[in-house]
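Quick log. Single chain, no ligands specified.
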Amino acid sequence: MNQIIAPSLLSADFGNLAQDIQMVNQSKADWFHVDIMDGNFVPNLSIGFPTLKVIAKLAQKPLDIHLMIVNPDNYIERFCKEGNAFCLTVHYEACTHLHRTLQHIKSLGVKAGIALNPHTPVSLLEDILPEADLILLMSVNPGFGGQKFIPQTLQKIQKLKNMIHQQHLSTLIEIDGGVGVNNYRDIITAGGDVLVCGNSVFSSPNPPDTIRLLKE
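-> predicted structure:
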């Protein structure tokens, strides 16, 4: 399949957010990636519900919402409904009853994703993998944009892809952090399906051209 390109709005210019969203709308990107940070699970704050509602109103492509928060179960319905989520991803490390959480997301008609921090092995997903539509592998330590890609992520992608094949699943592998024109081919070759591109797109001299390069 062709890789899915999901520009991360964490790297957008929030002083000109509507303009950046419109750029992505008109580009060859497939999804919007929206990072939600609470200052507890990760050492940063990002987008709250008022801003998310604006994004949902302006975006003409699916919203891929990544919850980097503690107690995500308390907010699932609001993110699915008010945020108009296409896919809602929660962290393995933040969910005590992960199976229940994924089932709750799916019951709302939204695709369910699981995110892993860099230190978390993919082997822990063996029993829960059939319940997930998407697995997000963090390729930087979560919390801030503009970090360098962790090379060991490529091995994690390969291991996860083998697990997906062994279980005869169609689960997508999403890579988030340090993804750009210098390494996207390696990520795709390893088995990545969805590329979250933040700084590499929004700091580019020509963001639509960068998106086109990553897509084609």
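Strands lie at 4-7, 32-37, 63-68, 85-91, 111-116, 134-138, 172-176, 194-197.
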